[in-house]
Amino acid sequence: MTAEVGTLHTQKTASDVLGLYFVKAVVGNAGTPGAPLVNLALSVQAASGHVAGIAEITQAVPGGNHRFPVTGQIYQTGFGPNHQLVSLQGEFVYSVPPPAIGSFLANFTAALSVDQQWNGSGGFNYVTTHVENVPVKNIA
């Protein structure tokens, strides 16, 4: 029994990915006019669950596009081998719209619930934009 307990966290299934892999995904309601979208290009270390890459926010409003680095972590839920939670965070320079003058460092966070193929749902927050329960789609 003691030997079995030591291997509980290291058991792998046939669908587990080993090593480093890359993911491209879109978070948001694509096709909805004016809706913000987050495009993700991420590298994932499968063994540690560490995630790093680039996020790009696109929105059809003045000053709505931002590109910046993100880091995060993947957490296994225990609700089956194909369900994982992804937490991302990053910062970017946000310029306030006219007539105001100035810029500040804005925080970005995202929480995603995805399957092994990186399809699912999630949300993201930055400045005064809070988007929840939108689709996450793998595009690569």
Walk me through the structure.
It is a single chain. This protein is mainly β and 140 residues long. It has a single domain, classed as Lipocalin. Helices cover 4% and strands 56% of the residues. It has 1 helix and 8 strands; from the N terminus they run αββββββββ. It has one helix spanning 2-6, and strands at residues 20-27, 37-45, 50-58, 66-76, 84-95, 103-114, 120-126, 129-138. A hairpin with a 2-residue loop joins strand 7 (120-126) and strand 8. Mean pLDDT is 86; it is low at 1-15.
For this entry, give a set of tags:
140 residues; mainly beta; Lipocalin; 8-stranded antiparallel β-barrel; 1 helix; 4% helix; 56% strand; disordered N terminus; DUF1842
Low-confidence stretches: 1-15
Strand content: over 45%
Quote the CATH topology.
Lipocalin
Biggest sheet: strand arrangement = 1-2-3-4-5-6-7-8
Helix content: under 10%
Q: Helix/strand-derived class?
A: mainly beta
Number of domains: 1
